[in-house]
Amino acid sequence: MLQYALLHICGYKLSMDDIKAFRSIDSITPGHPEAHDTDGIEVTTGPLGQGFSNAVGLAIAQHHSSAEFNKPGFELINNYTYTFLGDGCMMEGVASEAASLAGHLQLGNLIAIYDDNHISIDGDTNCAFTEDVAMRFKAYGWHVETVDDGDHDLEAIEAAIKKCQAVKDKPSMIKLRTTIGYGSLHQGTGGVHGSALKKDDITQLKKKFGFNPEETFVVPQEVYDLYHKKGAEGAAKEKEWEQLLEKYAGSHKAEAADLKRRLTGDLPEGWEKNLPVYSPSDSAVASRKLSEIVLTKIHQAIPELVGGSADLTGSNLTRWKDAVDFQPPSLGIGDWSGRYIRYGVREHAMGAIMNGLAAYGTILPYGGTFLNFVSYAAGAVRLSALSQVRVIWVATHDSIGLGEDGPTHQPIETLAHFRALPNCMVWRPADGNETSAAYYIALTSKHTPSIIALSRQNLPHLENSTLSNAIKGGYVVHETGKADITLVSTGSEVGICVDAVKYLKEKHSITARVVSIPCFEVFDAQSKEYRLSVLPDGTPSLSVEVMSTMGWERYTHEQFGLNRFGASGAYKDVYKVCHIYIFIFQY
Amino acid sequence: MLQYALLHICGYKLSMDDIKAFRSIDSITPGHPEAHDTDGIEVTTGPLGQGFSNAVGLAIAQHHSSAEFNKPGFELINNYTYTFLGDGCMMEGVASEAASLAGHLQLGNLIAIYDDNHISIDGDTNCAFTEDVAMRFKAYGWHVETVDDGDHDLEAIEAAIKKCQAVKDKPSMIKLRTTIGYGSLHQGTGGVHGSALKKDDITQLKKKFGFNPEETFVVPQEVYDLYHKKGAEGAAKEKEWEQLLEKYAGSHKAEAADLKRRLTGDLPEGWEKNLPVYSPSDSAVASRKLSEIVLTKIHQAIPELVGGSADLTGSNLTRWKDAVDFQPPSLGIGDWSGRYIRYGVREHAMGAIMNGLAAYGTILPYGGTFLNFVSYAAGAVRLSALSQVRVIWVATHDSIGLGEDGPTHQPIETLAHFRALPNCMVWRPADGNETSAAYYIALTSKHTPSIIALSRQNLPHLENSTLSNAIKGGYVVHETGKADITLVSTGSEVGICVDAVKYLKEKHSITARVVSIPCFEVFDAQSKEYRLSVLPDGTPSLSVEVMSTMGWERYTHEQFGLNRFGASGAYKDVYKVCHIYIFIFQY
Questions:
Q1: Residues 104-133, chain A: which have Cβ within 8 Å of B?
Q2: Reduced to 3 states, what is the DSSP secondary structure of residue B486?
Q3: Partner of A559 for a Cys bridge, out of A552, B253, B254, B535, CB 3.0 to 4.6 A?
Q4: What does the buried/exposed string (b/e) look like for A471-490 if buried means 16 or more CB atoms within 10 Å of the residue's CB?
Q5: Do β-strands B285-286 and B458-459 pair in parallel, antiparallel, or remain unpaired?
């Protein structure tokens, strides 16, 4: 509500009627702020720890973009990023991860204001949260200021902010000791966290602060005047910035055009010509390697592409060869302009930071980890989908095919999980052209995050696999005549199905069609006619995917999969023990 | 491999052949240790941060159980819990959450040994992890010791452990500065993290440490002798403890019987008589409230039940009225014997700690949060399922029915996610008797975790809902004659379907059967005959669940659900905007 109230009094498109509609249906003031619903809301938050981590992403984007675009005389990109967080955020692991990375990266323009009110939903934080937060943030490498009386001492708050602004080599945190529900009869208790105040309480509170208790939804004119003045100052600064940008465009034409283009979300013209194309005679390659080839070929054409990995670079193959790391220059191992982020083993923060990077507008982020560990970041992936940001997960080691690491690392439920998430595209390409297609759709879907599941093991290139087929999300990979049965599959199992067809023909005189559905979401969006041409009514069908069969019933009569955990061993042995080879009749 | 090697030389059931079979199929030495595969492996770890957080759970269990069972002269339960962790664990948020809680709880018997080798998979940790870990742990309230030369200085290591053992009011962490791959030509680099050493490297390493380079899989007899002696000492201590337990049984008969029973995993005889029973005339109640009633009624009968919430106690209704908090007595707000844990806003740590609590053997843990935020703990839930531990999630606010908090808090994909996870029971009870059934099966399933999804809003009690029907996972709730159509539903939508039936009959002369499937996993395990009696072949069928329809295709011809995000508003308005009322023909 604080955000909505401030947007209202500053003159954003948020009326008093919108305020009155708080938490009611079809309002632009939902219970938790959503970026695409409301002007001036920059990221979708509410789930604890996400907003703070988004801010770390916004600050990374600012540091990176300033290094890319600022020129002598043109300090085009130099904003501070401010974020508010409470005790709940402070307890969440995702925020701890993001804070540790922010400290490492020395994000001097990031200022976090910690509403230290000693109250969370269960009551006094002394029941669960007694750590020394200031000391913890100092340990992360942050500058820390403390304001003892956050309820009244505006001078101290301003002084603290100014000190933080002056610290350029560290992110800053202001520990603001406040009283929750300040002015209520129940101030300083858990009772005022989420419940509306009772009538008598509101009456005394309004009186205390000089309001007429009979009036509701009133803002004194002098308050409007003050904040509208602030709003006008902001608008003037925006205009000034736009003029600076136009001047910049005169002397730095290419950079200005690039910046303007990035802010539209469009990719540079012709970028897609860099996507690799394969034919069935090309040798088998792991799709994680195919992904690396895509990134290598397109990164020059798409300068906003900024990647990284949660400490699995050599396994995810997410770093093109001559990439520069995004690092504070003082460390001597990279630069602010670097386009490769070392996220550390922080999957959840990586997801939430990518949401912030995408929200900034100048960056198209991707991040790598094993498919199984995208689950660690489920909270952030959900917000990518809900807030409609373009974020790409390079999710390698996508099945029991990863072999020796065993069931703790082999996803079973993961694809079903994210396929069930609205506005999230889950790709599991079967070969080179499908991998190019996955990137093509992921990169051009401005308002949708994507998870690209990639194999550790080598995969052959398939006969009908083309970019134009694969971008439909599903198509016929193999057919030798009128089919008695349709085999439907994804990723590493498509090639196995193609082999099975040959066996079925030779040994059982059965003619089979093989369909690849690299992306449910995209295939489901095709015309019914097209879908029926791929999966004809009446032909018996079987799906084959070496993980949970959940969701496959929509396409096929029978499902072959793995509704149990995998095993540790050489991948062909794991396939055997999981009966994949029995499926294909002793292939 | 270190764990397996130590188990082998200490004389556990793990032979040299098992060692040779490391990471191969059907071995008891999988790539990451699994509790149920291998004697002496106490928790399933591998996914980073989980093992450390399990240890916090084991230490909580020890502190709690010692308060419950120890008597003057009988220090029956007094073990230390040791855990090893590396830089990866240190970066994961789940470990940060668990460390903060452990510090708050003053878990004096927990000793963590941090292998501070400055290397993670991406190379030198200075690329992503430069925080002051010792300072961070001090901020959490831990005692910290540092050993500078962890490669050689055994005396310093022993001294540090002894110092930590003597600190009784804080958990302890030993920061052990080591060299990864010590002795290898590539020691101290990322190259030795996960890859096998090359032949020449192994040769020089064996020579360096006095081994014959030609011999493989050899343990010198004096090493066996030393460790077998340690093993024998351990066995003697175990025997001593068993004798102490027998002596204890003489003077504390009931406590000893209780302890022995708990260790079998069986519940006390007759506990189930406390489960509440309802009839359709009872007034409508929210299933989160029904869950509270169950906990209130059974907690005395099942003393091993230890609950908690991730800072949503008043919303999850997870705390029976006179519960005592599990807290260090010095805080004055609880006791070590308390059975209610204030987890703070730390869902992921709560999940991993519950795995440790369950593994200890004397505790049956449950924990509450909103269903949507069980996803934050996906990594831990997966390990509950894989390691076959009995852990119960009280997952309230289970749908768009939560209303005002909006789409950031309304689960859509969550049930599909966990239904796709093997060995995980997902319950969504529709009323009182189904809630009792969910608890009945969850509590008696010794080797399976459960997630019980519960409503915020009131639900009527249904006519055929009985414990014996509901424990089958699916049954006919309502029928008035030969059905033209079958409506299949769960939770809060079952009552809506029953109302729809009346409307269908009156306005369209259509006879409908209503089926409730509170738990897919349990229903799928029933005989085919029973399943067909509930969902007859041939009758047209429609599923109704206000979230992702994924997975429902297995039961019904058509699916009604919500393959989009929800909305913020009064819950009946949200239902309208999501067309739930259109579904039931303007109900």
A1: 104, 120-122, 125-133
A2: strand
A3: A552
A4: bbbbbbbbbeeebebbbbbb
A5: antiparallel
Q: What is the pLDDT of residue A586?
A: 41
Give the length of chain A: 587
Is the CB of B553 less than 8 angstroms away from the CB of A553?
A: yes
What is the DSSP-derived secondary structure letter of residue B335? B
Q: Is B545 on the interface with A (CB under 8 A)?
A: no
Tell me whether strands A512-516 and A81-85 are parallel, antiparallel or unpaired. unpaired
Three-state SS for B504? helix
Residues of chain A with C-beta less than 8 angstroms from the C-beta of B121: 311-315
Say whether pLDDT at B583 is over 80.
Answer: no
Tokens for A560? 């072959």
B-chain residues near A566 (CB < 8 A): none
CA B560 to CA B363: how far, in whole Å?
A: 40
Helical packing angle, B50-69 and B93-105, nearest 10°: 20
Each residue of A307-320: pLDDT tens digit? 999 999 999 999 99
Question: In DSSP terms, which residues pair with B85 in a beta bridge?
Answer: B114
**Is the reported ipTM for this assembly greater than 0.90?**
yes
The chain A residue lying nearest B344, using CA atoms, is A128
Is B413 in contact with A426 (CB distance < 8 Å)? no
pLDDT digits (tens, 9 = 90+) for B51-108: 999 999 999 999 999 999 999 999 999 999 999 999 999 999 999 999 999 999 999 9
Identify whether the C-beta of residue A486 lies closer than 8 Å to the C-beta of residue A544: no
Residues contributing to the annotated binding site of A for Mg(2+): 87, 117, 119
CATH topology of domain B473-583: Rossmann fold (3.40.50)
User: Interior CA angle at A512 toward A508 and A513, to 5°?
Assistant: 170
pLDDT in tens, B237-273: 999 999 999 999 999 999 999 999 999 999 999 999 9
Interface check for B335 against chain A (CB to CB < 8 A): the answer is no
b/e burial code for range B360-389 (CB count within 10 A of at least 16 → b) = bbbbbbbbbbbbbbbbbbbbbbbbbbbbbb
3-state secondary structure of B520: helix
Min Cα–Cα distance to chain B from A480, Å = 30
pLDDT given for residue B330 in this prediction: 95
- Whether the CB-CB separation of A374 and A398 falls below 8 Å is answered with no
Confidence bin at A503 (pLDDT 50/70/90): confident
Per DSSP, helices labelled H in B399-527 are 414-419, 432-444, 467-470, 492-508, 520-524
- Strand runs (DSSP E) across A54-163, as ranges? 81-85, 110-116, 119-120, 123-124, 143-147
Query: Could you tell me how far CA A235 lies from the centroid of its own chain?
Result: 30
- Topology (CATH) of A45-178: Rossmann fold (3.40.50)
Do the domains B45-178 and B271-459 sit in the same CATH topology, yes or no?
yes
> Which residue ranges make up each domain of chain B?
1-41, 45-178, 271-459, 473-583
Contacts of A25 in chain B (CB under 8 A): 567-570, 573-574, 576-577
Closest-approach residue (CA) in chain B for A411: B421
Which residue from B355, B367, B326 is spatially nearest to B68, judged by alpha carbons? B326
CA atoms of B261 and B100, how far apart (whole Å): 33
Nearest-Cα distance to chain B for A91, in Å, is: 6
Which residues are paired to A462 by β-bridges? Answer: none
**Has B347 been annotated as catalytic?**
yes
The number of angstroms, rounded, from the C-alpha of A170 to the middle of its chain's C-alpha atoms is 25
pTM of the predicted model, to two decimals? 0.98
Residues 6 or more apart whose CB falls under 8 angstroms from that of A191 comprise A181
pLDDT at B191 over 90: no
Distance from the first to the final alpha carbon of chain A: 62
Q: How many CB pairs under 8 A join A and B?
A: 345
Within 13 Å and on the Cβ side, how many CA atoms surround A274? 17
pLDDT at residue B587 is higher than 50: no
Residue matched to tokens 């019904």: B556
B79 has binding-site annotation: no
